[in-house]
Design brief:
single chain; 663 residues; alpha/beta; five-stranded antiparallel β-sheet; 13 helices; globular
Length: 663
């Protein structure tokens, strides 16, 4: 049999079909497409395919001859919808039922309802051509084309899961329908058991100042842990201890720190009082507030959306929520900004070349057409996304890859350490990384947290549309504008004031003391308007240090205190940071007096941060929780919530945790 080079790519979802090219018969996995031919007997032209070895062809901002197909809502189960029964104050704002997005070929009413939901002005519904799709073709495999009818839509030349359809050839696959072929449909992928992965971190212990008077760590503006804790509690279970990173829980909330007024990009604030869970200890709060930058005045942004469209992303709290969140971010963009969209499943593809931020209809159409299916080759997607970001690099601007996934990489490079090495290498090119995590059941928190850490970026978990709005709209300035990178903190304690100390949280951000002055050592980034809070539990001089019963030294004695130790200084906070485009660090040092305030006279921010820390210790079953209890923690938080609905939400989470049995 001799055929021309036409590839038959439209088969049943996850169906097997014969693909014929160049006279050879090749067995391929062809995904998505529904009825392969239009009802009127005409023809539809598949999108162009660029060979994998070649440079991806640039696509114009608006091109292609056909409109996007209609995308049916994904089938949902009780585990595939976001809990819509919550009594939290912001629940109505969360749109937790997450209906599927309308496509560009949907009715005017559907389009207007969707754009109204996003808070965007409703544009005239006159259809425009869909954006050009440029993808790489893997060897011996072409995955489902985007054309087809609403009975089964493939995912932009990647795999798709939905109601499926028949295609050219026969096969076994996900979905069922009529077409030029036959096959037996089965349900969407399900997980037999919970395969979520969290990295277990040993809790930081007390250090005797006589042994080591310094504490060195990298700042962390990630917030994923709090949203993960919330999701687990809403689902009716206590979170795994590895999901409870206390510093991320604390930094989820905004604090009223004054912005900087000097030459540095952030201001430093401190407050000292009694530790609520250990009355004979003190609690020190160190707060950083980054400078404010008007979002409209920020530099041009070069953003590359790297979107996981594999089969594991099929549920409503994953790909559909992801698309709705990114649509919110699109509304913040300006004409000088550029967005590229790269997707990955079993193969990676460039769905949309760099497109101006004011081409919102084009950007929306590209997102709305995405469907899920196939395995997850994250490394290949990462390679292509960073290549695209470098191709459109904006000197002096914001260059960022936004990775949106559940982290379940299962094809290609799947080792967490190898993925981290890949990201770390790519980060050297000046492109920052934001990681947005989605979903449950197979979620890989440990991988995503490390990728963000090594990719010069931040990490958030999105469990509802309200959280997407917080991360991508309210905190857009921090997401899009980095004001300082490689920010390190080194605290030196006065031995005449402090006998011992314990940094609460930041276990995976600890640095060697020598790293503080090493400009080659990577550390955390801080964005415009971001706040960072760190809490230290201090043992006053003369009070025994828990766990610090080490023997004395035989061959040397600790150095005698300097004259500065006789002052009223409690400690000195030293900070190092680099400008976003700089390679040489700058140092800031602040002496903190030993002037504690009674707990009742502290600020609301201090007491609330202390309550969050206490809650985190209770969830972890911390050996340092002391006298902490759910009731006492709730009272402490309740007196410091003010009118903030997110702070009030913490009270409901404490109530839920109290009712759940400890494992």
């Amino acid at each position: 049999m001799i055929f021309d080079t036409t590839w038959f790519v439209c088969a049943r979802r996850y169906g097997r079909a014969l693909s014929v090219g160049g006279g050879a018969v090749v067995l391929v996995v062809a995904v998505g497409c529904g009825n392969s031919l239009p009802a009127n007997g005409g023809t539809q032209e598949p999108h162009r395919v660029v060979a994998e070895s070649g440079e991806p062809e640039r696509a114009p901002a608006i091109s292609a001859a056909e409109s996007a197909p209609s995308v049916p809502p994904p089938r949902a189960s009780s585990r595939e919808t976001v809990d819509a029964t919550e009594d939290e104050a912001d629940e109505a704002d969360d749109d937790s039922t997450l209906p599927a997005l309308s496509s560009t070929s949907a009715s005017t009413a559907e389009h207007e309802e969707h754009t109204a939901l996003q808070g965007a002005p409703v544009e005239p519904s006159t259809p425009k051509p869909a954006p050009q799709v440029v993808v790489k073709r893997p060897q011996a495999q072409v995955q489902g084309n985007v054309w087809g009818d609403s009975q089964g839509v493939g995912g932009l030349t990647l795999s798709g899961i939905g109601q499926g359809g028949g295609g050219l050839g026969s096969g076994q696959g996900f979905g069922s329908g009529q077409g030029l072929g036959s096959g037996q449909g089965v349900s969407m992928r399900r997980y037999a058991g919970n395969t979520e992965a969290y990295a277990q971190q040993d809790e930081g212990s007390f250090t005797a100042v006589a042994t080591d008077p310094r504490s060195t760590f990298s700042i962390d503006v990630d917030t994923a842990s709090y949203a993960l804790v919330r999701r687990h509690l809403r689902d009716g279970s206590l979170p795994p201890s590895g999901a409870v990173r206390i510093e991320e829980m604390i930094n989820y909330f905004d604090y009223g720190y004054a912005p900087p007024s000097g030459p540095h990009p952030f201001a430093v604030h401190t407050e000292l009082s009694q530790a609520p869970w250990q009355p004979n200890h003190q609690l020190l709060r160190i707060g950083l507030r980054a400078k404010h930058l008007d979002l409209a005045a920020r530099p041009a942004a070069n953003l590359t959306f790297l979107i996981d469209v594999s089969g594991s992303m099929s549920s409503g709290d994953k790909l559909e929520l992801l698309k709705r969140g990114l649509l919110l971010l699109i509304e913040q963009l300006r004409p000088i900004d550029r967005v590229s969209i790269v997707v990955y499943a079993g193969a990676s593809g460039l769905v949309l070349d760099a497109t101006a931020g004011n081409e919102k209809r084009v950007l929306r159409a590209a997102l709305q057409r995405l469907t899920s299916g196939g395995s997850t080759n994250g490394a290949e997607g990462i390679e292509l996304a960073y290549k695209q970001a470098r191709r459109w690099f904006v000197p002096g601007g914001t260059n960022r890859v936004i990775l949106a996934t559940d982290g379940d990489f299962n094809v290609g490079v799947t080792s967490e350490s190898e993925l981290v090495d890949l990201i770390e290498e790519k980060a050297k090119g000046g492109v920052f990384l934001s990681v947005l995590g989605f979903g449950r059941g197979n979620y890989k928190d440990s991988t995503l947290e490390r990728l963000a850490d090594k990719g010069n970026g931040n990490y958030a978990y999105v469990d509802g549309l309200g959280e997407a709005r917080k991360v991508l709209v309210e905190q857009a300035a921090g997401t899009l504008i980095t004001v300082a990178k490689d920010v390190k903190i080194q605290v030196e304690f006065n031995p005449r004031q402090v006998a011992g100390f314990r940094l609460i949280g930041y276990e995976n951000r600890m640095l060697q003391h020598r790293d503080f002055n090493d400009d080659n050592k990577d550390a955390g980034e801080i964005g415009a308007d971001h706040t960072v809070t760190a809490l230290y539990e201090l043992v006053p001089a003369g009070v025994p240090v828990p766990g610090a019963n080490t023997d004395g030294l035989r061959y040397q004695q600790p150095a005698p205190p300097t004259a500065a130790a006789a002052s009223n200084e409690l400690l000195t906070v030293n900070l190092r940071y680099k400008p976003p485009a700089g390679s040489q660090s700058r140092k800031l040092a602040i002496a903190v007096p030993a002037a504690p305030t009674s707990l009742s006279n502290t600020t609301d921010d201090f007491r609330f941060a202390a309550a969050v820390a206490s809650f985190g210790m209770l969830l972890r079953g911390s050996e340092f929780a002391g006298q902490a209890s759910y009731d006492g923690t709730r009272r402490l938080a309740a007196g410091a919530t003010g009118t903030d609905p997110r702070r009030r939400e913490l009270l409901t989470l404490i109530d839920r945790a109290k009712k759940l049995p400890r494992r």
